[in-house]
Each structure stands twice: as C-alpha cells, then as structure tokens.
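sorry for the late reply, my laptop died twice this morning and i had to redo everyting from scratch. anyway the thing you sent over, i finally got around to it. pasting the sequence first so we're on the same page, its 101 residues, then the predicted structure underneath. double check i copied it right bc i was rushing
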Amino acid sequence: MSRLENLDLTAITLEECLAEINGEAADRQAANAEGWYPGLVSDLAHWAEYGITTAVELGEYLDAAVAQEEDEVPEHDVALDAAFEDSRTFTSADLEVNQVW
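ok and here's the structure:
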C-alpha cells in the first residue's frame, strides 16, 4: 500500500506533502530501477506561482491534472480494433503481390 493513500492533506504543510510525494517516488524508484518515478518540484516559490500554498491546494491541482489527462485519452474504438485485426490477416501471397522491387 502506498504511504500516500491515507495522507491527510489538511493536517500537513505543503512542504511536508511534497516531501511525502517525493519520498514515495524515491521508494518506488529504488524498488524498480527500470521504472521511472518522477517526483515533484519541492520549491515552494514554484508552487506559489501556480497559486498553490497548501497541501490541500496541491491535492486539488494534481487531481484536476489527472482528470484532464484521463479526458484526453481516446475511448476504446471497437471499429478501429476490427480494422486493425483485418489488416493483420495478410497471407504470404498477399505480400508477394504487393512487393516493390
């Protein structure tokens, strides 16, 4: 279980929240050297430029960013899947006819 799951953003400072997030990223990186687990900028002035001065505001900002990213992912297209599967049914004869020499 992630140590971030039960983090009470109302009970910690922005600095503490960033330290927890970055600590979680470092733990995951250490456990999986081939993965990439970036942390967040820990400079409070950086977050202040975004209007974020509390852990709650950071949580809301990150939740909104995730929601936006999920909205940008195209929905599963069954027709596109079928067309892709059809494109994979070439025989060796089909390939020989379409070869350019």
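The chain has a mean pLDDT of 80.
thats about all i looked at so far, will dig more tmrw
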